[in-house]
Predict the structure.
Amino acid sequence: MSNRTANYTAFYVAEPFNETNLGANAAKDFCYYNMLKAWKAADSAFPFVNAHDKTYNVRDGSDWESTLKPRLHQRLRTSKNVILFLSSNTKNSRALNEEIDYAINTLGLPIIVVYPDFSTKGDIADSNGIRQQVKTLWDKLPIFRDNMSKVATIHIPINKALITSALNDSDLKVQTMVVGEYYYKIN
Protein backbone atom coordinates (compact mmCIF):
# COMPACT_ATOMS: atom_id res chain seq x y z
CA MET A 1 0.00 0.00 0.00
CA SER A 2 2.94 2.37 0.40
CA ASN A 3 3.03 3.18 -3.34
CA ARG A 4 -0.44 4.69 -3.28
CA THR A 5 0.15 8.35 -3.97
CA ALA A 6 -2.73 9.36 -6.23
CA ASN A 7 -6.19 10.77 -5.67
CA TYR A 8 -8.88 9.01 -7.69
CA THR A 9 -11.66 11.31 -8.85
CA ALA A 10 -15.11 9.77 -9.31
CA PHE A 11 -17.91 11.68 -11.00
CA TYR A 12 -20.92 11.03 -13.17
CA VAL A 13 -20.78 11.40 -16.93
CA ALA A 14 -23.23 10.01 -19.44
CA GLU A 15 -22.04 6.82 -21.07
CA PRO A 16 -20.42 6.17 -23.42
CA PHE A 17 -17.79 8.70 -22.37
CA ASN A 18 -14.87 10.16 -24.28
CA GLU A 19 -12.77 12.84 -22.57
CA THR A 20 -11.86 14.41 -25.92
CA ASN A 21 -15.51 14.82 -26.91
CA LEU A 22 -16.77 18.38 -26.41
CA GLY A 23 -19.94 16.97 -24.88
CA ALA A 24 -17.88 15.63 -21.96
CA ASN A 25 -16.74 19.13 -21.10
CA ALA A 26 -20.35 20.24 -20.88
CA ALA A 27 -21.08 17.55 -18.28
CA LYS A 28 -21.30 19.37 -14.96
CA ASP A 29 -19.52 16.79 -12.81
CA PHE A 30 -16.71 16.44 -15.38
CA CYS A 31 -16.21 20.22 -15.16
CA TYR A 32 -15.52 19.87 -11.42
CA TYR A 33 -12.83 17.28 -12.16
CA ASN A 34 -11.32 19.73 -14.67
CA MET A 35 -11.41 22.39 -11.96
CA LEU A 36 -9.15 20.20 -9.75
CA LYS A 37 -6.73 19.81 -12.66
CA ALA A 38 -6.76 23.58 -13.26
CA TRP A 39 -6.07 24.30 -9.57
CA LYS A 40 -3.09 21.93 -9.73
CA ALA A 41 -1.81 23.51 -12.96
CA ALA A 42 -2.02 26.99 -11.43
CA ASP A 43 -0.63 25.98 -8.03
CA SER A 44 1.89 23.13 -7.82
CA ALA A 45 1.43 23.08 -4.02
CA PHE A 46 -2.23 22.04 -4.42
CA PRO A 47 -2.03 18.43 -3.12
CA PHE A 48 -3.96 16.74 -5.95
CA VAL A 49 -2.21 13.82 -7.69
CA ASN A 50 -4.44 12.73 -10.56
CA ALA A 51 -4.88 8.93 -10.68
CA HIS A 52 -6.39 9.29 -14.15
CA ASP A 53 -2.96 10.35 -15.43
CA LYS A 54 -1.47 7.03 -14.26
CA THR A 55 -2.79 4.85 -17.11
CA TYR A 56 -3.70 5.13 -20.77
CA ASN A 57 -6.88 7.02 -21.62
CA VAL A 58 -9.99 5.03 -22.38
CA ARG A 59 -12.28 5.56 -25.36
CA ASP A 60 -15.98 5.21 -26.05
CA GLY A 61 -15.56 2.05 -28.08
CA SER A 62 -13.52 0.21 -25.45
CA ASP A 63 -15.01 -2.98 -24.06
CA TRP A 64 -16.32 -2.70 -20.48
CA GLU A 65 -15.06 -6.04 -19.13
CA SER A 66 -11.74 -6.33 -20.97
CA THR A 67 -10.61 -2.69 -21.00
CA LEU A 68 -12.66 -0.12 -19.12
CA LYS A 69 -13.28 -1.92 -15.82
CA PRO A 70 -9.67 -3.18 -15.47
CA ARG A 71 -8.37 0.35 -16.22
CA LEU A 72 -10.60 1.84 -13.49
CA HIS A 73 -9.38 -0.81 -11.04
CA GLN A 74 -5.74 -0.15 -11.97
CA ARG A 75 -6.16 3.58 -11.34
CA LEU A 76 -7.89 2.94 -8.01
CA ARG A 77 -5.06 0.63 -6.89
CA THR A 78 -2.59 3.54 -7.25
CA SER A 79 -4.79 5.79 -5.10
CA LYS A 80 -4.75 6.68 -1.42
CA ASN A 81 -8.31 8.03 -1.48
CA VAL A 82 -11.26 8.94 -3.69
CA ILE A 83 -12.67 12.38 -4.38
CA LEU A 84 -16.35 11.81 -5.19
CA PHE A 85 -18.28 14.67 -6.76
CA LEU A 86 -21.91 14.14 -5.70
CA SER A 87 -24.39 16.63 -7.11
CA SER A 88 -27.95 17.01 -8.28
CA ASN A 89 -26.60 15.94 -11.72
CA THR A 90 -25.22 12.63 -10.45
CA LYS A 91 -26.79 9.43 -11.73
CA ASN A 92 -25.99 5.87 -10.72
CA SER A 93 -24.02 4.83 -13.82
CA ARG A 94 -22.30 1.49 -14.30
CA ALA A 95 -18.85 3.10 -14.12
CA LEU A 96 -19.56 5.22 -11.05
CA ASN A 97 -21.14 2.27 -9.25
CA GLU A 98 -18.11 0.09 -10.08
CA GLU A 99 -15.64 2.78 -8.99
CA ILE A 100 -17.24 3.29 -5.58
CA ASP A 101 -17.89 -0.43 -4.96
CA TYR A 102 -14.29 -1.39 -5.79
CA ALA A 103 -12.86 1.59 -3.89
CA ILE A 104 -14.75 0.89 -0.66
CA ASN A 105 -15.44 -2.84 -0.64
CA THR A 106 -12.24 -4.16 -2.24
CA LEU A 107 -9.57 -1.53 -1.53
CA GLY A 108 -10.95 0.20 1.57
CA LEU A 109 -10.20 3.67 0.23
CA PRO A 110 -11.37 6.72 2.21
CA ILE A 111 -13.86 8.95 0.41
CA ILE A 112 -13.73 12.74 0.21
CA VAL A 113 -17.24 13.70 -0.89
CA VAL A 114 -17.39 17.11 -2.52
CA TYR A 115 -20.86 18.60 -2.99
CA PRO A 116 -20.81 21.15 -5.85
CA ASP A 117 -24.39 22.20 -5.07
CA PHE A 118 -23.29 23.62 -1.70
CA SER A 119 -20.81 26.40 -0.97
CA THR A 120 -20.48 26.44 2.83
CA LYS A 121 -19.95 23.89 5.58
CA GLY A 122 -23.29 24.99 7.04
CA ASP A 123 -24.99 23.82 3.84
CA ILE A 124 -23.68 20.30 4.56
CA ALA A 125 -24.29 19.99 8.29
CA ASP A 126 -25.42 21.85 11.35
CA SER A 127 -25.42 21.07 15.07
CA ASN A 128 -27.97 18.30 14.39
CA GLY A 129 -25.68 16.53 11.89
CA ILE A 130 -25.71 16.05 8.14
CA ARG A 131 -28.59 17.94 6.52
CA GLN A 132 -31.40 16.01 4.83
CA GLN A 133 -30.73 17.61 1.41
CA VAL A 134 -27.24 16.07 1.53
CA LYS A 135 -28.55 12.65 2.62
CA THR A 136 -31.02 12.79 -0.27
CA LEU A 137 -28.07 13.00 -2.67
CA TRP A 138 -26.72 9.75 -1.18
CA ASP A 139 -29.80 7.99 -2.57
CA LYS A 140 -28.53 8.79 -6.08
CA LEU A 141 -25.63 6.40 -5.43
CA PRO A 142 -26.86 3.54 -3.19
CA ILE A 143 -23.51 1.70 -3.28
CA PHE A 144 -21.95 4.74 -1.61
CA ARG A 145 -24.84 5.36 0.81
CA ASP A 146 -24.89 1.73 1.96
CA ASN A 147 -21.10 1.27 2.32
CA MET A 148 -19.57 4.62 3.30
CA SER A 149 -19.47 3.63 6.98
CA LYS A 150 -16.82 1.01 6.10
CA VAL A 151 -14.19 3.68 5.37
CA ALA A 152 -13.27 7.16 6.57
CA THR A 153 -15.53 9.63 4.78
CA ILE A 154 -15.64 13.41 4.86
CA HIS A 155 -18.44 15.57 3.45
CA ILE A 156 -17.49 19.05 2.24
CA PRO A 157 -18.80 21.77 -0.05
CA ILE A 158 -16.92 22.73 -3.17
CA ASN A 159 -14.20 24.93 -1.70
CA LYS A 160 -10.49 24.84 -2.59
CA ALA A 161 -9.29 25.38 1.00
CA LEU A 162 -11.51 22.58 2.35
CA ILE A 163 -10.51 20.21 -0.47
CA THR A 164 -6.83 21.02 0.22
CA SER A 165 -7.33 20.31 3.92
CA ALA A 166 -9.05 16.98 3.19
CA LEU A 167 -6.33 15.92 0.74
CA ASN A 168 -3.67 16.67 3.38
CA ASP A 169 -5.56 14.91 6.22
CA SER A 170 -3.83 11.65 7.22
CA ASP A 171 -7.19 10.26 8.41
CA LEU A 172 -8.29 10.37 4.76
CA LYS A 173 -5.43 8.32 3.30
CA VAL A 174 -5.78 4.54 3.03
CA GLN A 175 -2.41 3.99 4.71
CA THR A 176 -3.37 5.91 7.88
CA MET A 177 -7.14 6.30 7.91
CA VAL A 178 -9.29 5.88 10.96
CA VAL A 179 -12.61 4.21 10.20
CA GLY A 180 -15.56 5.62 12.04
CA GLU A 181 -18.53 7.84 11.56
CA TYR A 182 -18.55 10.19 8.65
CA TYR A 183 -16.74 13.44 9.18
CA TYR A 184 -17.95 16.95 8.71
CA LYS A 185 -16.89 20.15 10.38
CA ILE A 186 -19.38 22.95 10.94
CA ASN A 187 -16.90 25.47 12.32
Remarks:
- The radius of gyration is 15 Å.
- The chain has eight helices and six strands.
- The CA atoms of residues 1 and 175 lie 7 Å apart.
- The first strand starts at residue 6 and ends at 10.
